[in-house]
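[09:14] KT: can someone run the structure on this one? pasting the chain below
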Amino acid sequence: MTQVNVDIQQILPHRYPMLLIDRVVALEAGKSCSAIKNITNNEAVVQGYAKGPARYPQMLMVESLAQTGAVALLSLPEFAGHIAFFGGIEKAAFSGWATPGDTLEIAVELTKLRQNAGVGEGTVSVDGQVICSATITFMVS
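[09:31] RB: done, structure tokens below
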């Protein structure tokens, strides 16, 4: 992967509050993408998720994976200006939580690409420990 300066909002249509990646740290168009998401107390989803300590919803970790994979896919010249839709989730597994102050380290490798669809394997880590993994499917329109 190569270091890049990516304007996420030029690639994805998502905006606050549903843009769930803060920065792309590495990208190989059509192959892989790594991104980060900083978790803060200022996010309503952290405060209102559950009784008890503030934590980031695990389902949003999967959405962060999908957005990171979409950046890898939509960075291909043939998909520039298109929209990627979340087509499905398989083998999602969770082994921890993210809390305010954590940085999600999101990595997706695209394993299959066909015409207007792709499949990616992704992980979300905090401090090097994987807390979420999933296989995600994308459709490009």
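[09:33] KT: thanks! The chain has a mean pLDDT of 92.
[09:34] RB: yep, looked fine to me
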